[in-house]
Design brief:
Elements lengths: L1 E4 L7 H11 L2 E4 L17 E4 L8 H9 L4 E4 L9 H6 L3 E3 L6 H16 L2 H9 L18 E5 L3 H12 L3 E5 L12 E2 L2 H7 L2 E4 L13 H6 L5 E4 L8 H9 L5 E4 L20 H7 L4 E3 L8 H20 L1
Parallel strand pairs: 1-2, 1-3, 3-4, 4-5, 6-7, 6-9, 7-8, 9-10, 10-11, 11-12
Helix pairs in contact: 4-6
Amino acid sequence: MKIAAYSVAASEKPYFEQWMKKNNVEVKLIDKPLSINNLNEAAGCIGVCLQQAPKLGDESFYQRFAEMGLKYIGVRTAGIDFIDLASCKKYNIKVTNVPAYSPRAIAEMGLTQALALLRKLGEYKETMAEGKFSLNPNLVSNEIYNLTVGLVGLGHIGGETARLYRALGANVIAYNRSHKMEYESVVEYTDLQTVIEKSDIISLHTPLTPQTKNMIGAEQLRAMKKDAILINMSRGGLVDTAALIDALQKHEIAGAGLDTLADEAKFFRKDLPLDQVPADYKTLAAMPNVIVTPHVAFYTTTAVENMVNIGLDNIYRQEEN
């Protein structure tokens, strides 16, 4: 048995080595994302283990994948929106993911960004750089226990996020397609419009689907409180980036914490000259009331180890059975 792993980061390699030694299985480590151009590197393998943003390709990619004898795509993350599931079904390719590698890691990043924005740390840094250290009435903050936090999506990450905010004393409301009993002690379930209109902090934790794409657009941003903060730890495509920039520039909302952007595949996980970085990122990053991180909310030692181990186990166990 042999597995090919793509998009392997330096921080992941020790865990790959440990897994190979434990299971006596060879894993070919490839640092680049999987595409039709490097698919041949997986020759002789039973499947591939990967995490990436770029889409794998059109139907011809999956046809070639199957013709090579590859049977499994083991994703090391929760999201699988970059995979054409219809083509996988057609060519009998099994897809697995890691739905819960460390929900707490992502929940903590969302909370960190929200608190930094709530206390206006970016604005303070900007004014202090100008030598202004006096009390500024425009920079007075609120305290989290006085606020309502609205969650869109209440899966593993949304649930951990709810628990963190509730522990700090916030009122937590949530919109989810189904009511989950395990979170009823920390959230009040409501509809999406209520979350948008009533929340001081809105945190997104829902998958990207055709139905959720741009679910936060100009209309929703206008409906938010003027002092609301938007947090997106999920998928960039949930938010209309142009509409968000416009709302921030018009002061229709107070700030945004973004670990993901709609066009992130062009530059996240890469090192590029600044002239190749998209203009929308530059605009957002220059705003003192915006925090942008390059899809690293998951990036803790606990999460990395779990992603590698579970991603590989998903392939190994299917083949063994």
